[in-house]
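Hi V.,

You were right to ask for the full record rather than a summary. Here it is.
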Amino acid sequence: MADLKEIDATRAERNSSWKWIPSLYFAEGIPYVLVMSMSVIMYKKLGISNADIALYTSWLYLPWVIKPIWSPLVDIIRTKRFWIIGMQLVIGAAMAGVALTLPGPGFFRWSLVFFWLMAFSSATHDIAADGFYMLAIDDSNQAWFVGIRGTFYRLAMITGQGLLVILAGQLEVSLDDLPLAWALTMGAVAAMYLMFMVWHWFVLPRPDTDQPALSDTASGVVSGFIETFRAFFAKKGIWITILFVLFYRFAEAQLVKMASPFLLDNIEVGGLGLTTRQVGFVYGTVGIIALVLGGLLGGFVASRNGLKYWLWWMVAAINLPNAVYLFLSIIQPSSTLIVHLSVAVEQFGYGFGLTAFMLYMIYAAEGKHKTAHFALLTGFMALGMMLPGMISGWIQEMLGYQNFFAWIMLATIPGFVVAWLVDIDPEFGKAKD
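Predicted structure:
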């Protein structure tokens, strides 16, 4: 009888969780894709140079780099539910701030201020949402919903990189006013996000376990924090691990900042001359579908043979398809079909190759403090994306697009080197029979 009650409780919890898990992880993905991807396209259309776009939008990675430093505050002060609702309010207000500043003078400086606010709030929201997920539902439902949360996070990527960019492109054409078109798009996102906040105010559960850890003494919190860092840097081979996390995506970190400007720039300066709507379609639909398929295949094959077996194939997959951009810069095709196929190949390889990166971070985080250590590794991951991305615009302006993409192929070498350095248990990643 007790087992039946537990099963009924699990089913009831699962049914109620459909009200908030999909919307929570969709809301988690939207500000990240706006800050990291949509802002690049927006600033390019508004006349900002590639060097400035790459430098300043790469700086926006910083909150995700340093979020492990303030993550204990989310545990100590108030509840995870409070932080989720509060950060959604701030993020929505920051989106509205971007919308209001775009039509005015000094829009680049002021919109970056609001993007910074959005980035810090989004990083804090990530901490609270992931913690709340583990508190609000039991272990069996956590496993059951892990694919659901990932799917809705990817839908947020499609929305931000695709549908919203297509909307902005349509408004550019109909209004013939670029700043107003992007301001209205950002305003629409702000309104949508604030509706998510109101929705979550009512539907997020209030688990008894979601309590602030104020019973811990300040000295205990500090000593625990220091111990977590000490244990991380005492891990065997930690410096090789850090090098792997920093340099595995060294080429991708630079390519991702210049790919959209390349597609948008005029043919006369080496670009492909696509419209905003076309770029939204190629990245938000074709690219995302290929990315998801690559990720699914990567997870499947890794579970069959283990990470070590597939590591070199995945290093090649995330790096070598970057050559499609060199190919596109040489032939500058007028056919959008060629562009779509090329981006699909690159994004499929990226999705497949990223599997090795994520699995290795899980492998390296194993141990007593694995949650905190994984968060530290994601901070190094963000740093590995931020620093190369900052200089990518300057390199592109110095070399031109064709030579820049040739440089990207040389920049894939560190990824192969760090893959050669790491040592992985051959059994890690294999599915248990």
